[in-house]
Design goal:
The protein is of the alpha+beta class and 209 residues long. It has helices at 23-26, 39-64, 71-82, 88-109, 132-144, 172-189, and strands at residues 116-118, 129-131, 149-156, 160-167, 197-203. Strands 3-4-5 form a three-stranded mixed beta sheet. A two-stranded antiparallel ribbon has the order 1-2. The chain is elongated and about 90 Å long.
Length: 209
Amino acid sequence: MSEPEGTTQRLPVLEKEEPAPAPEEGAQPHARRYWSARRVPAGIVAALLLAAFGLFLYDVVAVRAGHSAMRWRKVLAEQLATRPLDDIWVLLGAGVAAAVGLWLIVLALTPGLRAVLPMRRAHTDVRAGLHRDAAALALRDRAMEVAGVQSARVRVGRRKADVRALSHFRDLDDVHDDLDAVLGDAVRGLGLARPPRLAVRVRRPGRKG
């Protein structure tokens, strides 16, 4: 299951004709996650910087040409020169600037697109990804095939697949063992580069836990 570079595949892979390798053998520890383009934050930051630099540049050129500086720049320079460092507005401005800078650093260093799980690369020039919701849906469908399972909820993360099932008949240990076996094969069949660890919980309807 693959598609061209830069696209994601939302349809789950349920089965393969040939058995997929076990997570220890088939895992690709260096599989790269998909990076978000983050066009909106980048566009906002670029527009704000362009407007600010353009305004400063215009004022500097006007002063060089013999005109007086804009009133806002005079007020700003006076406030920066006279206000103490422990002033509430100085601290507030510094806090906002630090928060914005930290936000930009996080955006620059993190891939984003946490909902897309990278898949194994059978060909070096082809990348594919599976959406977490699609993976959860595939595992839920396989869980519902186990005898005794009344309902199931599945959450798939980067490292763990959390499965909570309700069983209205059969011994809970037997249902748990069957779910481990069936969902283990299903996880390997998804073709993920880093198969998530299974965490299966089975209980009777009406009981919390």
